Amino acid sequence: MSARVRVPDFSRLCVAVAGDLVADRYLYASPRKLSREAPVLVLRHERETLGLGGAANVARNLRVLGAKTELFGLAGRDASGRELAARLDEEGIGHAGVLSVPGWTTPTKTRVLAAEPRRSAQQVLRIDREPSEAAPDVRRAEIVRRMRAFAAKFDALVVSDYEYGLVGEELGALAREWTAAGRTVVLDPRRALAPFRGITALTPNVGELARFTGAEVERLDDPAALARAAHELLGQSGVRWLLVTRGNLGMALFGAGIPAAGLFVAASGSGEVTDVSGAGDTSAAVFALALAASRSAPESMQLANAAAGVVVLEHGAAACTRAQLERALGRPSRARTKSR
Known about the structure:
The protein is α/β, with parallel strands linked by helices. 31% of the residues lie in helices and 27% in strands. It has 9 helices and 14 strands. The chain has helices at residues 55-64, 79-91, 137-149, 169-180, 206-213, 223-237, 279-292, 297-311, 322-328; strands spanning 14-19, 21-34, 41-54, 68-76, 94-101, 108-114, 122-129, 156-160, 184-188, 201-202, 241-245, 251-255, 263-265, 336-337. A 10-stranded mixed beta sheet has the order 5-4-1-8-9-10-11-12-13-14, with helices on both faces. The model is unreliable at 332-340 (pLDDT under 50).
């Protein structure tokens, strides 16, 4: 397989993204002194930003690469929900499918980053605000009804599960319908697998693959053990392809038309990893987008791998532009098979 992969024209594609929206709040500070009240560091507040996380970050990655996208999910009528909607507008991401729910807490991850002047900020604390209960059944059903109403406009669907209760039977039934109709459907999974049996692809990380198959995660660095677990999950899920993200070891692809031992690619990029937040979102988004653009699964993996290699060099959940992706593909890692 050639190491040179062209970036397709994604501008004619329209992709639905459904799943758990997350507000990524970043609080930047500089160290000041030790507190007199407790043995902790006092930080001086400098600035705050709010980024798109979870399914919203998947949608942003699609939009930045030129695809049209519509986001479906839940947000609370709280400060994070309002700011999230404003950011989606700024990014040009359609969000008529996002329901604003009274009493629902918008999942919010607040990361505190600190650094002395002229040094890279490091995360020192994360505080999560989460809903007290799973997404209500009536809201999940309403989201699926909205998606069905606009089904004709979509070429693909990416489902992003962050375990806040939106991803389940209702969305799984729709995903299977759209797969049968010839659309590309990709699930970035956490827990819900059975409702999505037979869709196009799954994009678990190694830890998720271990959880789904009962394998020991430490053993999955071994390509043969990884392949055994991957084929077990392929059998369970009935999907066409399984793209396993392996952190600093790159990615591995299994499924239709792929050697049984799998197709492996080393992590893209040569810079120092700054932040892995959202890299899985990027991988799922780009893999689905490339498949929808009629690229082969191995080519789609290389595009996803290159994009992930870009976003881990930036703070927070970032998105890879077309220009960045083209530059990254100028220095790709060569895909290879592994013997079992």
